From TrEMBL, chain A:
The lineage of its organism: Bacteria, Pseudomonadati, Pseudomonadota, Alphaproteobacteria, Hyphomicrobiales. Residues 319-478 form the Uracil-DNA glycosylase-like domain. The keyword Metal-binding applies. This is Type-4 uracil-DNA glycosylase. The keyword Phosphoprotein does not apply. One of its GO terms (molecular function) is metal ion binding. SMART domains: UDG, UreE_C. It holds the Pfam family DUF4130. Belongs to the uracil-DNA glycosylase (UDG) superfamily. Type 4 (UDGa) family.
Automatic annotation (TrEMBL), chain B:
The keyword Iron-sulfur applies. The keyword Cell membrane does not apply. This is Radical SAM domain protein. Its cofactor is [4Fe-4S] cluster. PANTHER family: ENDONUCLEASE/EXONUCLEASE/PHOSPHATASE FAMILY DOMAIN-CONTAINING PROTEIN 1, TYPE II SECRETION SYSTEM PROTEIN K. Keywords: Iron, Iron-sulfur, Metal-binding, S-adenosyl-L-methionine.
Length: 485, 403
């Protein structure tokens, strides 16, 4: 429906009637391209609004030529360029004239005209824009698809009667929403078809759409059941869903009966005496329901093991390891690649380094409890390698509950936080390790101790620095061991 | 659709309808993937209206209305004699997808009675959301009711799939909860709201998805003796403390098979309406709870006039307000001027002084605003002092009542 041109006039030359009047013929419906071309040309030729006659329902004579007749693009405030496509679909024949009058004033000194919503012209255009927005909204809301019977790919069709020329403005919404479906929307003015590409076609007829759908009865059931007869408010319903839409909405057939019965139903509810429960009280089930909390570490671990990762990645949950009642517990960050494969904590390179350091510090790894703040491996794939990715503060919070319960069950005397993530999980705060290293108060029923994560030692590039850091780490573990004794 | 499923749908939609929430707004804009279904538009869409004037936006159903709890106000309490039913996860998914394909709904609002245990119930709710997202590539709106008695890690998981989570406070005081909802625990409710609120903020900062359309709650109006003022103060606290998106007020409605622990008389629907208006004043009009309290008498908002007008009538010395000079905060206090009208006034007056005709084009509430404002060519010299102003502006009392 694009394309337009000033009508070739009889005598005075193209687009002119006697007295310098220009006649512009645009295609029926919403001819945005035609209006744009005409407006550019007319502004460039300095033609005042009062010298133009806009013919809206004229057949398009030279459709494809409109681009050739374009004037230079107009530089306009965004408020204006956004308004135009929202007014062009209006069925008011004056729409083009009003828009052109706006353009004329804007390019003649009133650049900020759109801000003056109290101006009669701006006010009127705003109201037209609002009418289009409402029409679009109602079409998106009230259109109902029916399934077209047949084999193969599901096909849907709908019949809708918009107030304005909005089919093309409304269609993209349905593409975004029902991209994987095949559908047609028929209106008295034209039709839109989607099967992976969007095409527009000639007007349809109501009869071209199936006269029912297998889910319509269920939908009406839902509509009836969700209505509360004690709150009848027909004005509110009609204000938002005017009658004119009803005939294309299957559920509205239920309205008369719902309304008729409403007051009697409401009255019956009010008058009805409270009844005695027909079933006996499920005492045991009620008592049992509150015992949902896991009561042992094993029970908690079973829950963690069957839960899905709350971070992207991970093949399995890596549970804590070590005896309940251990005097000392170590909390790391999250499982790494090896831990994720083996399902055990601290078995990768950093874990092996930790084992060595524990041994040197005189701590028997089998008697300590080892776990992680986050129970699942989070990574990004680079080629075939799974590169560890640090959990965010929010992700650490997702896992906090499990760590808390876990440590409740283990009830160690001392908990060693290995690295910043562990500190965050235990305290809820971001604390720099270098400053906080050593004994710490986590505000918990156990003593706290902060040191680096062993992976930090692996990352140090300089061998001498690495050795020194390792010694300091072993020293920290000795101090922790002494505190836990 | 077979009759067995239809029967369940009737029971479980009827059982869910006392939850006032219907919003499908606030989710980030999404489009369907190549093989998927569904989108969100930001503002939400009401796909139909029922004769109670309420919008039908989401498929609002319970997974089951069997319930171990015995909350007096609830139609589904275990001691109620209503018909019971239970959907399978698969059935809810099918209904959602098939209704959605026909453009009946924006998505799903799923809640449930508590069966077996809070954890079990919460897991089932999340399973529905997960199945929709994963197996059907569903990108429409999902609102899940969270069960505050469930283990906290289940809420952590639910937020990854839902657009909105909500926990209904139902009764605004601990005493009322104890009396009318013995299995509920106010501290657990607010604890879970805090958890959700914190996680939503974190996820926003980290650009991850966790209940991106926020959380909401519902309180029942008229089931206990809580005043409007106390209700609004509670709401302001909830908005402030947990970052709630919405507090819904639901006038306690007659239900089939009501409990004798409830007041025999339902509150006027207009009371609910006034609470919504007061709530808006707090959220969009820079009113404080103290301002709302100031508009009320003995803690109750007037039924015949709206709370903004009530405040203005009690603060006549602050009026009339000059539309050409007043700041935004004071313009927002003028009865009849909405927030959008105020912003339009402020923009327009930069380009010239506004006359009464101009103001008339910027608001549809001029009739109510007139006694309270000054324009270039207009001064309401006597009007603000007239004693009968309230009578003149009050709404007829019978509107909105039952019949």
């Amino acid at each position: 429906m694009r394309g337009s041109l000033e009508n070739p006039p009889p005598a005075e030359g193209r687009g002119h009637l006697g007295g310098g009047i220009h006649v512009v013929g645009l295609a029926p419906g919403a001819d945005l391209a035609g209006f744009r071309a005409a407006a550019r040309r007319l502004i460039a030729a300095d033609v005042a609004p009062e010298n133009i006659v806009w013919q809206t329902e004229a057949p398009s004579l030279f459709g494809a030529d409109s681009a050739a007749a374009d004037g230079p693009p107009l530089r306009l405030p965004r408020a204006v360029t956004e308004l135009i496509p929202m007014v062009v679909p209006h069925r008011d024949p004056e729409r083009y004239g009003l828009l052109y009058a706006l353009l004329w004033r804007v390019v003649h000194g009133e650049r900020a005209l759109m801000e003056v919503a109290s101006d009669p012209l701006v006010h009127r255009l705003h109201r037209m824009r609002k009418a289009i927005a409402r029409d679009l909204h109602k079409m998106h809301a009230f259109l109902r698809f029916r399934r077209v019977p047949g084999e193969g790919r599901e096909r849907f069709a709908a019949w809708f009667e918009p107030d304005h020329h909005i089919l093309e403005a409304a269609a993209p919404f349905f593409v975004d929403r029902f991209r994987a479906l095949t559908w047609s929307i028929l209106t008295p003015e034209g039709s839109a078809h989607w099967d992976g590409t969007l095409r527009y076609g000639p007007p349809g007829r109501r009869e071209d759409v199936p006269d029912g759908d297998g889910f319509e009865a269920g939908w009406r059931d839902y509509y009836e059941s969700t209505f509360n007869p004690a709150r009848l408010n027909l004005d509110a319903m009609r204000a938002e869903m005017p009658r004119k839409y009803w005939r294309n909405m299957p559920e509205t057939a239920a309205i008369p009966a719902l309304v008729r019965a409403a007051s009697a139903r409401a009255q019956a509810m009010i008058e009805k005496e409270p009844t005695m429960p027909a079933k006996r009280d499920p005492v045991r089930a009620v008592a049992k329901m509150s015992q949902d909390e896991p009561e042992t570490l094993d029970a908690l671990n079973a829950i963690i093991a069957r839960s899905e990762p709350l971070v992207p990645g991970a093949t399995q949950a890596v549970l804590g390891e070590g005896p309940v009642g251990a005097r000392i517990a170590f909390v790391g960050e999250q499982p790494g690649d090896q831990e994720d494969r083996q399902g055990r904590p601290f078995v990768g390179p950093a874990g092996q380094l930790l084992s060595r350091a524990l041994e040197e510090a005189g701590i028997d790894r089998r008697e300590a409890y080892l776990t992680n703040a986050v129970k699942h491996f989070k990574f990004t794939l680079r080629g075939k390698r799974r590169i560890h990715e640090k959990p965010t503060a929010g992700e650490v919070s997702h896992y906090r509950w499990w760590l808390d319960r876990e440590l409740d069950f283990v009830a160690p005397k001392l908990v060693v936080a290995l690295g910043a993530t562990a500190v965050l999980a235990l305290t809820g705060k971001q604390i720099p390790i270098t400053r906080a290293r050593g004994p710490a108060d986590f505000g918990r029923p156990f003593e706290g101790f902060i040191t680096v994560h062993p992976s930090y030692l692996l990352r140090l590039p300089d061998e001498a620095a690495k050795a020194a850091a390792y010694q300091a780490f072993v020293e920290d573990l000795r101090r922790a061991q002494a505190l836990a004794a | 659709m077979d009759e067995k499923l239809a029967r369940k749908l009737r029971i479980l939609a009827d059982a869910a309808k006392y939850d006032a929430s219907c919003a499908s707004s606030g989710a980030p804009k999404r489009k369907a993937g190549a093989d998927g279904l569904g989108s969100t538009t930001g503002a939400g869409i009401c796909h139909a209206y029922t004769p109670d004037g309420r919008c039908v936006s989401l498929l609002k159903i319970l997974l089951t209305n069997y319930c171990l709890f015995d909350c007096a106000y609830c139609v589904n309490r275990r001691s109620s004699n209503v018909a019971r039913a239970r959907f399978s996860v698969e059935e809810v998914v099918t209904l959602t997808v098939e209704f959605y394909k026909r453009n009946y709904i924006e998505g799903l609002f799923l809640s449930s009675g508590i069966i077996r245990s809070p954890d079990y119930t919460m897991e089932m709710l999340t399973r529905v959301a997960k199945k929709l997202r994963r197996d059907h590539g569903f990108r429409g709106y999902i609102h899940l009711k969270s069960i505050p008695e469930a283990s906290p890690w289940l809420i952590e998981e639910a937020g990854l799939y839902a657009d909105r989570l909500s926990i209904n406070l139902e009764l605004p005081t601990e005493a009322s909860l104890n009396r009318l909802a013995p299995e509920k625990d106010g501290a657990a409710i607010e604890g879970a709201m805090g958890q959700i609120g914190e996680r939503i903020v974190q996820a926003k900062e980290e650009r991850r998805r966790f209940s991106p359309a926020g959380q909401s709650t519902q309180v029942i109006v008229g089931a206990d003796a809580t005043t409007d003022e106390a209700m609004i103060r509670k709401s302001a606290l909830l908005y402030g403390t947990y970052g709630l998106k919405r507090v819904y007020y639901s006038a306690f409605s007659p239900i089939p098979d009501a409990s004798s622990a409830l007041p025999p008389q339902a509150p006027p629907l207009r009371r609910e309406h006034r609470l919504y208006q007061a709530d808006w004043l707090i959220r969009y009009y820079e009113f404080s709870p103290d301002d709302v309290a100031g508009a009320a008498d003995d803690g109750m908002l007037a039924l015949d006039i709206d709370p903004k007008l009530a405040w203005a009538l009690k603060n006549r010395h602050r009026f009339p307000v000059d539309v050409n000079r007043a700041d935004r905060e004071m313009l927002l206090r003028v009865p009849g001027l909405g927030a959008r009208a105020v912003d339009a006034i402020i923009k327009a007056r930069r380009h010239g002084r506004l006359r009464l005709d101009d103001v008339a084009r910027l608001t549809s509430g001029l009739k109510r605003a007139r006694p309270f404002l000054i324009a270039e060519d207009f001064r309401p010299t006597t009007l603000t002092d007239r004693l009968d102003l309230r009578v003149k502006l009050a709404e007829p009392a019978e509107q909105l009542s039952l019949f």
